[in-house]
Every structure is written in C-alpha cells, then in structure tokens.
Sequence to fold (293 residues):
Amino acid sequence: MRDLPPLNSLKAFEAAARNLNFSHAAQELGVTQGAVAQHVRSLELLLEIKLFNRHARGLTLTDEGRKYFPAIRRAFDMISEATGGLSPQDTVVTISSTPSFATKWLVPKLSSLARDHPEIRVRLDASNSLANFQTDGVDIAIRQGKPPFGPGLVATPLFPARLVAVCSPDLISGAAPIHGPNDLLGHVLLEDTHGQWPIFLEAALGEQNVSGIRTMTFSQTSLAIDAAIARQGVALANRELVKADLRAGLLVQPFEFSMTSENGYYVVAPRAPRKASVVATLSAWLFAQVSSA
Fold:
C-alpha cells in the first residue's frame, strides 16, 4: 500500500497554493475557509513541515511548499487527464503515416475530421519507421508500397502513385523555360529517398542519354516539394500530395506527362481492430477526402 496523505488535505493544499488564499481556495472547492485551513494544517502536521507562511492579506509558500506544490499539481492534472480519457463520447484513435504524407495530405484535412466527427480525437504518429499495430498502439495506418503489408492486416487502396513533375511558376518562365520532359535536363532535379527520377525520365524520354543531370537529394518527399516551392529545382511527387500547392499557385505542373508506379497509398488496419467502429468511420472519412478533392 502507498503511504499517501489524505486526498482532501492534498486538494486543499493544491487549491490554496494556486490561489495563495484560503478563502479563494474554499470557494473553488465548495467548502468553508476554516475547512481548507484545517486540512492544510493537518497535512503540515502529518508531513512535519510548514507549507505556508500566513500573512494578514494572504499566504506565501515556504521553501518546502514551493518544492511540494508542482508535483502535487502535476498529480492532480494526470488524474484529471486519465479520467477524461475514459469518457465514452471521446475516442482516441492513433494514425500512423510517414511525415511527408502527414504534412502534405493528412494534417491540412484534420479540421474537417474534427468538424465531421467531434467524438474522435486523433493521435498522429508521423514517422518513417514502420509502426507495429500490436506494440505501438496504432489503430490505422496509411502506407505506401505494394501489399500485403503483414499477416492479419487488410490494405485498401487510398490513391495510386501517379508521379508528376512540379516546380515554382517562376522556374517555367525563367532563363531555361520548361515546356516538356526534355527541358528537365537543364534544371536541378529534386530527389527523395524513393529515387524515381531515372525511371520517370526513361519513361518520358525513352533511350535518350540523360547522363550529367544535376540532382539534389532529400530524406523526405515533403522537403523536396518545399524546395521546389522555393525555386530550387523540379520535384517529382505524387499528384495527390501537391494538389493543394498546385491550387494555391505555389507550384505548377509544367507538362502533362505523368507516370504511375505500383507503390500507391493504402489504408491499412488489422483484420479485427480493437476499435472496429471508429476505424470504420475513419477509413470512410479518408476515402471521402480523396473523392472530394
């Protein structure tokens, strides 16, 4: 058994320490000023330390009181948070995705989720590491690649990997304008870790010699896209991830040619999820975001 002081005494101390006034603490707790003072006095006797200096116009914490107060306040905050998390109206769902997908596609849409499903609270685990549904507490994931993604998992296509070349509007009308795939050879090509530029150029230009191309490599697709917005070169990206930037005029697609690879995006969840109803709701919402875009 833990050797804990009485809860009422701790509540009285925490309220009095926040307000530095027994009367204000009593109003907050719905008891008398005398009751708060008595609980605090009992706590001081139990701990054998003085927690407050009493003054005519209020209180000040002693050195011991200042040391004790933050820990007690954190404890009450943790109890409040844990209790609130049990509310049946408030379901926390953990989504796993890569940082680039989260930044460029998912996060801008979360306000719509909050509006449409206020009962769902999202915890977003954005990492390049592959999350484990059993050990990491993940409820649903968006993964890029080719299924299957693991035993006991169901993968449903979200959108295909349609790759397009994008750049700043300033770049296509500059000293080396871009009208077609062949014009890419005069610009810096912004690479991510997927390394799709050689495949894209081969599909667009055939057997043409593309040796000597200049590249700049980034660890994440979102960084390559941001570099393109900053006029650093031409990025290769899934069209779904740059739709918002294209609509905003931050990027342009200088020519129509595109390439579709096998590594599309999928909504992945366990065959028998822990939170079946909320996973079904979230999956339907994700698919609706693609169809409405």
User: Anything to note?
Assistant: The chain has a mean pLDDT of 88. The beta strands are 52-55, 58-61, 91-97, 120-126, 140-145, 153-166, 189-191, 215-217, 234-238, 258-270. The radius of gyration is 29 Å.
